[in-house]
Each structure stands twice: as C-alpha cells, then as structure tokens.
Design a protein that fits this description.
By secondary structure, the protein is an alpha+beta fold. The protein is 64% helix and 9% strand. It has five helices and five strands; from the N terminus they run H-H-E-E-H-E-H-E-H-E. It has a five-stranded mixed β-sheet. The longest helix is centred in the N-terminal third of the chain and has 84 residues, at 18-101. 15% of the residues are buried. Mean pLDDT is 78; it is low at 1-14.
C-alpha cells in the first residue's frame, strides 16, 4: 500500500484545536501508564532485594529467641541457688543459735559454712553467665535494628534510582517519538498509542506477506537511522531494547507459509528486526513478538477497524 499523500486543508479547519488536545491527552496518558509500569517494576525489584534481608532477619530473630530461652533458664537456676543459699543460711543461723544454747561439735558448723561458700561460688558463676547472655542478647537486638535501618535505606535508594531511570527513559522515549514522527513525514496513519509507536502493516507489507516491500524497507531504514541516533542519548546504565510487535486482524489465514495469524504476525515482526539489524542496529537491542489477532487496537469487523488492527508496534523500553 503506498504512503498517504499530504492532504490539503481548508482554511476554516486550521482553527480546529481538537487534534492537538487529543495528542496532549494521549501523551499525558502515555506518561501515566509508563510511570505506573516502572513503579510496579520497581516494587518487584525492591521486593527481591528485601526478601534476602528478611531471611537474614528471621535467622537473627531465631537466634535471639534461643538466647532468650537460655537467659530464662539461667535465671531459673540462679533463683534456685538463691533459695538453696537462703536455706543453708537459715540452717547455719539455726545451728549457731543452737550452739549458743547447747554446745555442739564444730564439724557440723564447718560443713555448713563450706556448703555456703560453694553455693556462693556457683551463684557468682551463674551471674557471670547471665551477664554474658544479656550482652549477647543486646548485641543481637542492635544488629537486627541496624539491618532494619539498612533495609529502609536500601528501599529509599532504590526508589530514587528508579525515579531517575524513569525520568531519563521518558526523555529518551519522547525524543524517539518526536524524531521518528519527523522521519516518517508525520503521516496521518502513524500514531502514538500509550508508550508505543504504531504503524499500519499496509505501509510495510503487501497483503498476506511477511516480506518488506520497497516502500516499507525505505520506512524501516528511516526508523533504523532514528534508533541509531537515539541510542547515543540513552544512559549507559539503562539496558534498553526496541520491541517490535506484529498484529493482524481477526480474519483467519491458512497458507503453507503461515498456518495461522500468529505465524504471520511473528514473521512480520522478525522481518522488521532483521531489516533494522542490517542497517546497523545492535541485535541485542531488538526484540520481536507476534500476537496474531488476539490484541486488537479497536473492536469491529468493518473495513476501517480491520485495517487499524493490522499493524506493527514499536516500543522503546527497558529489558
């Protein structure tokens, strides 16, 4: 299908602002959808980063629980020794009182005194163990607090980095759309839908064919020049790709080469990718996909609706 020639406009049509308003609203919708997509992606990567931290925190909390149990056990043993010490002290005091009232053998008092000394030593050992456990518990709690702070800081840095990448990629995409529109002479059939640049299949291919026709190859050459120009503007830390999606209408196709619309849409996307690669675009920056008739741009079976759904979409995005 030949490219549409420039249509003349009558003077009173120059004052029609509605197309400009629609373009502005479409651009605004593009930015909102893109920001939402990147936000969801950011949340996904943030969730992956936080997941590893959560596992470490769980292990740390388990260790703290074990230390708490040991501390409780030591406290119970400590209390038991205190009671024994009190009982021995009471026995010693009773023995001393009995000795004052009635003389007894010195061996009984000496044995009680030795038991009291032994229990005091055990009590001192347990108290030292309690202090060590308390210090270990406080150190574990402090480490957990520091890790939580580190996770919070990581989330903040990740959100800031994502916001910066969104802004940078948005600028590059806007420049891509602007440059590509000028390269294709701002034809009426070339439109921007959301974050995608849409070109009717008839501009590139003959009916039922996945081979670029002469005019289609000229348009893809222009596109390749724009991609090569835009590639110089993308920051090095952004792993970008140009995704080419093939779409057909709902009318079935069943030929030797294309048993279904899936085959046709995919073959057309691959043909565009190969043509771009031949013009010097890095193959790692290209991605081809075919959707057949399953993602129509508009509903309806009339001739115009079918024509709009037969299309090739270009999306500059992050891998």
């Amino acid at each position: 299908m030949s490219l549409l020639a420039h249509r003349g406009r009558r003077p009173f049509e120059d004052s029609n602002y509605w197309p400009g308003f629609v373009d502005a609203m479409a651009t605004l919708l593009l930015v909102v959808i893109f920001l939402l997509s990147v936000f969801i992606l950011g949340q996904f990567y943030l969730g992956q980063a936080v997941s590893g931290r959560d596992e470490a925190l769980l292990r740390l909390q388990s260790r703290i629980a074990e230390l708490g149990e040991l501390l409780a056990l030591e406290e119970r043993d400590n209390e038991s020794l205190r009671l024994q010490l009190q009982e021995l002290g009471a026995s010693l005091q009773a023995a001393q009182e009995a000795q004052q009232a009635e003389p007894q053998e010195d061996g009984v008092r000496t044995q009680l005194e030795e038991e009291v000394v032994f229990l005091n030593r055990q009590l001192n050992v347990l108290q030292a163990q309690l202090r060590a456990l308390q210090a270990a518990l406080e150190a574990s709690e402090e480490k957990e607090r520091q890790q939580r702070v580190e996770i919070a800081n990581l989330g903040s840095r990740l959100n800031a980095a994502l916001a910066r990448r969104v802004q940078e990629l948005s600028k590059v995409r806007s420049k891509f759309f602007e440059t590509l529109s000028k390269a294709l002479d701002e034809r009426d059939e070339v439109v921007v839908v959301g974050d995608r640049f849409v070109l009717p299949a008839e501009v590139l291919f003959d009916v039922g064919s996945a081979e670029l026709n002469a005019r289609g190859r000229q348009e893809i050459n222009k596109l390749a020049d724009v991609v090569l120009e835009i590639a110089q503007l993308v920051p090095e830390d952004i792993d970008w790709v140009l995704r080419i999606d093939g779409h057909t209408d709902v009318l079935p196709i069943a030929t030797t080469l294309f048993p279904s619309n899936w085959y046709l849409s995919t073959a057309r996307a691959i043909a565009v990718v190969e043509a771009l690669a031949e013009r010097g675009v890095e193959e790692k920056r290209l991605l081809a996909a075919g959707f057949g008739e399953f993602r129509p741009l508009v509903d309806g079976l009339d001739r115009e609706s079918l024509r709009k759904n037969r299309r090739i979409e270009f999306k500059l995005t992050e891998r």
